[in-house]
Specification:
With 350 residues, this protein is of the alpha+beta class. The chain is 41% helix and 9% strand.
Amino acid sequence: MASSICSIVPPYLLDRLAAADDPARATAAKAARRALTGIEGVEAARSVPHPVPSRSSGTALTPSLRRSVSDALGMEDLPGIVVRSEGGPATGDPAVDETYDGLGATYRLFSDAYGRSSLDGAGRSLEATVHYGRDYDNAFWDGSRMVLGDGDGEVFERFSKSLTVIGHELTHGLIQYTAQLDYRGQAGALNESVADVFGVLVEQKLLGQRAEEASWLVGEGLFTPLVQGHALRSLKAPGTAYDDDVLGKDPQPGSMEDFVDTAADNGGVHINSGIPNRAFYLVAAALGGYAWERAGQVWYDTITERNFPAEATFAVFAGATLTAAEKRYGAGTEESTAVQAAWKEVNVLV
């Protein structure tokens, strides 16, 4: 996990865009082709892998929010030039200021709701780079920082526009310090799903939304008006986020009955994440109220459990969430019942 580049836009979507022959999306097609090779370049540039951090349950010490946003100036060299640090004034650059605010919103979710001081539980500085590459169609966590592209302007807007994207990518950093889920197969899909879950919770907490009020969309606002779609993914209804002539239809399943067996995308980590995503939504909807409270607490307790298996399958994770719910709220309670029912509905538990 520590050496994985975790990106928000799945390769299957970039593949479709890269092959587009629509003149109105020529810039986007070229940008998608660059983005497809860009992650390989980032991996190759990291001659020294990031060390695997010690797992942490994350009991906060003294909460200390420290942010740093750098500007890559349209190049693909990291980290770039620091343009805003903790406590500094707004720059007037939307990408910089949106990212700075998003770092703060993500920190506050984990601090306020779960008593965690930053990603590592010990006040780690939150670092990000914006304006990465030219027309770069992705955002990713590289093992030490979040990196955001500006999009191509035809299909994708700048990635800092979506708070769920920022929350998602930073959650990959949290997973790096906790469950350390392998980035392949079902464990990789869980990695993506947990990032989606806390990505939407960051937004819901900032907006003060109850479960029934939220959109449950990841990447809402990223698509330009040329695209027939609302977002990259939907936790509420996997497979409905977009249906576009060029990008195709959102392929995410919402049940094990439709699990996609593929070697692509590290074994379908961005596709099959729809199944645990749907399970979390069902828990949150059943419990009502603010989803970051009881539903989010169960998921947080699960990934911060010491010695959680990095190669966990959906069934293992489902069992762990039920154990977490019973440990915190009791067996047979509304919370544990909702967790068990959700995993049964998506056919992970029988």
